[in-house]
Amino acid sequence: MADNRVLIVGGGPEGVKAARQKSEEGAQVTLVEKFPSLGAERIPRDRLIRSDEGFINPDLDKVRNDSNIHILPYSDIQKVHSGEGAYFARIIQHGLRVDNTKCNDCKACIKVCPVNMLDDFNEGLGFRTAVDFYNPVTAEYNIYKEDMPVCQRSCPLNLDIRSYVGLIADGRYLDSLKTIRDRLPLPGSIGRVCPHPCETACNRQYLDEPISICFLKRFVADVELNEGIEPVYETPEKTHPEKVAIVGAGPAGLTCAYHLARMGYKEIQIFEALPVPGGYLWVGIPEYRLPKKLLQREVDLICNMGVEIQYETRIGEDISFEDLRKDHDAVFIGAGCHKGLKLRVPGEEEYEGQGIIDCVTFLREQALNPTEGKGKLIVIGGGNAAIDSARVGWRMGFDEVYILYRRTKKEMPANPWEIDAAEHEGVILQYLAAPVEILGKDGRATGMKCIKMELGEPDASGRRRPVPIEGSEYVIDAETIVPAISQGTNLEFLPQDHEFSLSRWNTFEIDEDTCQTNIPGVFAGGDVVTGPDIAIRAVAAGRNAAMGIDEYLRSK
Amino acid sequence: MCTGRVDPAMVAGAFKKGLDGLMVVGCYFGDCHYITGNVQAKAKMDITRRLLKHVGLNQDRLAFRQCSSGEAAVFVNLVSEFDQRIREIGPIGGGGDPVEAPDIFRKMETAEAVLAGEKIRWVIGKRTPFLESGNMYGEVFTQHEFNRAIDMIIVEETEVQEILRELREGARSVKGLAQALTIPSERVFKYITALKRKGMIKLDKVSDRTPYFQIIPQEG
Amino acid sequence: MIYEKEKRYIVPFDDVPSPRAEMPEISVDERRGNFDEVETGFPESVAVTEAKRCLSCRRCLGCALCWAECGVEAIDFDMPDEVLELEFDDVIITRGQDNAFSAIDPAWGYGTYADVITDLQFERMLSPTGPTDGRVVSPLDGEIPARLAVIQTEPEGDENHLLSSVVLGVNESILALDRTEGLKITLISPLSPDFKERFLADAEKIAGLSMVEGKAGSVQRSGEGDPLTVTYSHEGADHTETFDLVVLLTKPVLSSETQALSKKLDKPVQ
Prior knowledge:
The complex is a heterotrimer. By secondary structure, chain A is of the alpha/beta class. Chain C is built from seven helices and nine strands.
């Protein structure tokens, strides 16, 4: 049976062919193509041709003239979901900015346009100008205006990097900081810890090296600090009476509160289980990367807007989640991922807390109640938390600090500059080794049995899978062992019979646009949704949630 | 006459004719009879200097200075200092510039063509709105972003104008143009493709394995 | 979003290359036993110099010169995006015209030598409405090549890809030979059994095309102005040969958006 309404994504030869077939079967077809023109005039790839039949596609004319086929070029599927046997799609058709019913193809515009770019339709063999035709056959003109530069696009928060870096170049540091704070209330903190996907995308890398965007952000934050300027974040005169509860004073929660306050919400309460703000930024990122004093100041500036943080208040213990919902018009959950995952090897349970301590607890203890270390420390894992734990251990005074990782340096998920810094400080990295058993004596861990690994075939992540080498077990002694393999959420604050829809990783499932969970009025964002991820993504989620909460409360 | 009226193309034209130095002296900011004539003048001379430097002129040969009509002593000082500096650099193309004579005069001709061109004149004229109220999309430029936009036009228009000047003298091949102009041949190929797309040049002939292109005279 | 294929054109500005600023740090000796901040921050002059390296990437400047030049008032900067909320009974996902291909090994010289192009670029070059009006020329210097190599860049695995890419290579050769006098083409590929069975006999009859069953190794240029040197193995021996233009048979990949959409709707890509 032919379906009635068919959406075809992609206007290449396959899409055009499918459109024609579906139309012949009697369907109403919508053909969506992200570039400004269909591109089906191609050389066949399934048979040898004669020299006069290279670029002919009989389907294309049929499709262009078929009243049952609605062609949407220069269009994007912004959102799509399925349900009850149907698909719902939100499609954005971008404005061409040239009225092609008026255009007479005189080429006056392309003669004067000062902007050259690679001609995408011709695979970059030549130039086009910003205003130009895309497909020479249809000669439909468009103006190519990027929606964002690549740096801004790759930033989860879409920070206006081009502007704020330009303002630094002009010497206008405080204007630059203001531009950053339009979205990000923690520029000094993020400017120190962000792994900067923007720099990974920066176009300048193709000429020499990317711009040092992250540290420039830190620079303007430091200028304000060093000049002793205490900014006041403005809140509007028109206020909203609704009460919003935020669970967790981490980057997501703080940012959510900041944006809600900027929208005029006066009753924002953040509930924080720890005695300190910042979430993982305080208890996970070590002091030598992000001084607490600086983080505290950035939090204080948010609190000065009227945001209240209730410390040492654990939801589910001090206040029930139900009461929280009852007392507030909306709730945002930004509880993070503060549970270190287990190695799941024999001996781990037995010596827990006695020489074996997961990285989250290890880093948190050191942030809240610093102690000294001695003897040998072994950290297991290859992520940033592993590197942080090792570098913290080295500073605590452990005599020897090792990182054990089951793949090689190339596969390590930690930032390469962090790995280098750790090595530089004398941390010893042992690759291609994995723990088999925690050994102990008299109730304390004393060491570990390990096995050597080799790299096999690539797994789903594209990294080569480590395979144990049989019979290669060996034992290393250690006073302290810190597993830093991954982190998970701790959702014990929810009532037993909660009805949230959760993923199989025990994270909240939310609406991408609004951050709302399946329970109306309850929103979630940050690591508690994504699993352990970078701070700027949590900040972005906090901002999205603030907008979602506002939309929800204003339409109530 | 207001310094804001000094046309950048005229400046390049003067150097083309062998001038060794040019100083534009305007009123102090805030004193302009036309409000912002001197601001425009400084911006125009800054851009002209960027271009002249790009094509190989010592940038000190073009100066923008300010003094009021009542400050005779200041004026004398400015002139003496500039005169002194130009004497240090020496005659145009005589070793004080990255490009020497007679090539420097060909470069000045190119600079004049770029500065007389619609693209750069239009964008220079957009400086104030770009920096203050924004472009057609409401994007306000920083000075740095504006400089990049101008530099983009400077780099590319210099090459395009050199290619067009050669083509006005007769049909040329990509390889021939690259050799004559010391522009990388792959860039010449892209420019030639672009000029053809714009209807400004066409294929003249193919001789042996070499396509030659000729200019299509433009109206107006 | 507004898409641009993953090839970037950047104006060769005068300040390129210039090195990136390095973050000053306290020495390792100063770090032991304390938690002092390691990175001390950019001094002002360093920050400004670094910020000035920014290329301010931007396509349309929004200068409206085109609008001023357009005699029929067709330019409309305020033309809005249209948002459509639509319902469908079925969705078909296709590859579209991204033409993304898997990363090309630097050994093939793509991106380094302008006269090494992809099969997709060659296809556009051969199109009568393409940038060269269908003429085969070298993007390095605009000259018409006499010797052209078509080489398989991913000779391992995926029989379907091997078959379709070689068929494309042969078809492109047919068009190129038809419109280029005195052109000689060498196609180097391991040639899948399927191709040999179905097409090889016909391909070998094409005048000017030599089918070489082998594996190409690298593309290099020994000196400026020299032709490209291709190394390849054929019948157990290593060969080197020079060419004026090299076309790489690439392996197509799906864009991340298409993959994500396919995963989300649990629909295969057709």
